[in-house]
Every structure is written in C-alpha cells, then in structure tokens.
Amino acid sequence: MANTFKTFLPEDIASTRTLLHEAIPITGSIISGTYGTNNIKNYSHGMFQSVYDYPFLSSSANHIFDITWGYSTGSFGTDGSALVQQAKKVNIYNEMSLILNTLDISGNIRSFDRDGEHDTNTADDMNETLFLNFTRLLAKDEIKKGSWRMSYFASCSFSGTTEGKPEYGGLNVLGDYNGINDYRINSPAGEYALLFTSSFHATHHGGNNPPVGHLYYQAAIAVITASIFQNEFGDQSMGAITGSVTDLLKSGTINQLADGLRYAIKNVQFNNTTELNSSIYFCRAHNTDFNFSSNPTYLSASEIIVKGNNPLADPVSYITTVGLYSPDNELLAVAKVSEPLKKTPSNEVTLRVRLDY
Questions:
Q1: Which of 175, 177, 182, 180 lies closest to 273, judged by CA?
Q2: How many CB atoms are located within 10 Å of the residue 46 CB?
C-alpha cells in the first residue's frame, strides 16, 4: 500500500472517444443454403424466425438476426377468418412502431412513413412491412452510417422449374446510401436513415424512386416495405406456399414469409461500430517526487541500500507500478510498466495510464 500520494490536477486528465468498425458479411448461402434449415430456428408462437451462422444446436452457433413480418390494423380489412395470423402480424407491426416511431398527437400507433416526416399524408405510409432485427453481437453499439447493403431478388417464377424451386431474377441492392449526411433523429430508438434501391435513389426522394424502408442504426433494425418484391414469392422446397407478397401476407404464416425472404436474399453486409471511451491520466513524477521507497528492504540499519554504502550518493528508486486511488485513498486501478524505471532527483518521469470503457 502506498503511503505517498500525488493529487491529479485538471491538466493531468484527458478524455477521448474512438469509434472502431468491423466489417460484417452475411452471405445468402448461410441464410438459405449451406446448412439447410439446421441454422434456422422456428418457435411455437410463430411470430418470428431466428437465423444462426451454424446449426443452432451447435455450441459454436451464433444468433445473427431475426426475421418477421407485419401489417397495420387497416390493412386487408377486418375479416380475420380470411387472414392467417392477422392478430400476430398486426401486433408485430404495432410493437415495432411503438419501439421505433413516436405516437401521433392522439396517442395512437403511427404507421411507418416512407420519408420519415411523420406527417398526415397517408399516401406514403408503409403499411405492410418486413423486419430484420440484427443481434447486438453483430451490430455492437450501432451500425455504421452509410455501410448497410442488402442484395436481393425482387421476383421469382415457378414456371418451368423442377422440384418446386423458383427461378430468381431482378437482382437489386438495397442500402442506406448517403446515410452519413442524410439521417433522421425523430425516433425514440435513435438515428435512422432511409433505404433506397440504388445510390441514384438517395438523391431523388420522390417521383418513381421513393424510399423503400428505414434502417435504425442504434436499434440495428431494418424496416422494409413488402412492395420491393414482385410477381411470385416463396419457395416450395421449404414447404412455403407461393404467390405475390400481398397474397402471402393474407394467407401465409410469418414463418412461411420468412422462408421466402431468406431465399430471396443474396447477401447482407454492413460495418458495425464499437464506441471506445478512454480516460487518460498523466502521472507525473517530478525530480523531487518518489525518489524513496516504502518497501522494508529499501533500508538496512537506517541506511539506503541502493546508495552502495556511499552516504553522498543520491537516493534511487525504481518505479514498477502505478496505482490510481480514490479521494479516500482506496486503490481503484493498477498499471504495470514493462520494465522498472530508474528515478533519482536528477530526472523526471511522466507515465500515461489509459482506462478504456
């Protein structure tokens, strides 16, 4: 335990913030092919489907994202007998809206607005949507702005195919183009950007090139309108029914819709972000500081051993450890130097100690 302390001055402490990024590639072969359905976990409640990077029963498997679908209360009327899992799909949509949207001025659930303006114009509402919820393992603190891309097949055809496997076409790339400079802050879940099907669309927010979804960076959730898909949708080899997305939203289960989406995705990629905060302490030992040691072996018969029996020699100490203490002199952190540092009245030492959190 130290018996000599030195108080930090304001200029001895500095704080820094560093953003670390990691590339995350998720290939379509992982999502829908390499492991068959062994890395796809369905649940008895049938409200979402989980995707793993290995067969999920393996101890090395990592949960990477969830897939689910939903639509607003007013979609497809109110005849529940003709709609499969209507209550669950509406509940999914409402839950996501509560998490990612603000309520309207009347306290009601707000539909996802293509342009994110939260205005009263209902013509650009995304009432039928799919949701991709990425795990914290992949997204870390947030998804890096402007880095998210999803390549997908917009259409498929079952005519002339064998074994019920469709022929996919219309490869598109969906992304948060220009998300670094053009993002919204009117969500309780944090910042989000609009998703477009090409970089051209990112600068043309209207006409024939409207946004087709939102990407919420801190929540790591993508909300995409079901209208990005055309023609038939699904995969009979997985036991899913086929038809247009609108038909499947009415008559298919969420798991069947998730199966169809997995086979339509070619790949997903983005960079995650880890925010590293650091406190840097400059521990300064001036020429008159820490030239003696409180170690009992430092003295012999009241004489300093390291002087080598020379009473005229300067005292010498060797710094091996730096301790950071609270105002009550309680040890909070310890830093070790790579090799002992010689300290005498003729030199000064400044040690830089960094705490990351």
A1: 180
A2: 15
State phi, psi for 82 to the nearest 5 degrees: -95, 0
| pTM exceeding the 0.85 threshold for the entire prediction | no
Q: What confidence category does residue 1 fall into, taking pLDDT thresholds of 50, 70 and 90?
A: very low
**Residue 191 structural domain:** 17-275
Please write the tens of the pLDDT for every residue from 13-41. 999 999 999 999 999 889 987 888 899 99
CA 55 from centroid of its chain's CA atoms: 22
Q: Which residues contact 64 (CB under 8 A, 6 or more apart)?
A: 26, 51, 52, 53, 134, 135, 137, 138
Does residue 199 sit in the same domain as residue 313? no
| Residues 246, 341 share a domain | no
Burial letters for 60-80: b for 16+ Cβ neighbours within 10 Å, e otherwise? ebebbbbbbbbbbeebbeeee
Of 25, 50, 48, 30, which Cα lies nearest the Cα of 40?
Answer: 50
* Same-domain status, 247 and 301: no
How many CA atoms within 13 Å lie on the side-chain side of 201?
21
